[in-house]
Design brief:
InterPro entries: Metallo-B-lactamas, RibonucZ/Hydroxyglut_hydro. By secondary structure, the protein is α+β, with helices and mostly antiparallel strands. It is 25% helix and 24% strand. Bound molecules: iron/sulfur cluster (SF4).
Amino acid sequence: MAHPKKRLTTNAAGNFFVDATCINCDTCRQLAPKSFKEEGDYSAVARQPEGDAELLQAYQALLACPVGSIGTEQSDKARLQEAMKSFPLLLEDGVYYNGFNSEKSFGGNSYFIRHPDGNWLVDSPRYVGRLIKAFEEMGGIRTIFLTHEDDVADSARYAEHFGATRIIHRADAAASPGAERIVDGEEPIVVSEPFQIIPVPGHTEGSMALLYDGRFLFSGDHLWWDPERNALGAPERLVWDGERLLTSVAKLRGHPFEWVLPGHGDRIRLTPAEAAAHLDRLLERRRAARP
Ligand code: SF4
């Protein structure tokens, strides 16, 4: 729970504030970009939200913040409830962003896929009543796809509650003891149409992406949208093997997609041609920067 006494001086004056417990995970800036900005090592309120849409986004950010660093001097309980009920947020065609990001994954994003043959959870949000109820109402969770070792968060609790099968790569499996399905090697695997696993070693040895319906690429910490560069980005630090990472980026050229849905970094929808061109530019940039 954010505390007014810890309110950062970088916040715009007014009701919403960020306090000094912020871990700078970017979640609030993705959800409410007009209201929150990065300021040094923290987020801060750039300007107070105005109008229904911005207020809803600001309360969504308050709920999604993994460490409770966003507060209000006076809470609007009706808007808070509206924000609570809005999660998970529908992105498109049965694909949702869950919100309630977990500190255990440093505020990583997680997603839900509603599918008639069984729903999928991609990485894990906090284990909270609102999401458990929403997932139950949509038919539960059959499969939990873990992109890599850093973002397992509360997946074991969701697996137990829903009787779900967790999938993780063997190289990262120590992070998910008891995971029901272990992936080996680097060859893409069609689990069942239209779910395809693409191992993308680089950030970690066991990093994997999930391509759903030939359109939605759940990319973990392997690939994201960088709004400042207006380009796709990939990790430059905290990397297990930089050369393998570039090989894995190049591998995605053979798997057309539209949406990039990462654990960290911004979401984006592109055309397949734009996505391919951005992958090429990313590879050119990174190869040119080699020592
Ligand atoms: S969501 Fe919370 S922890 Fe993350 S940047 Fe915003 S205020 Fe900081």
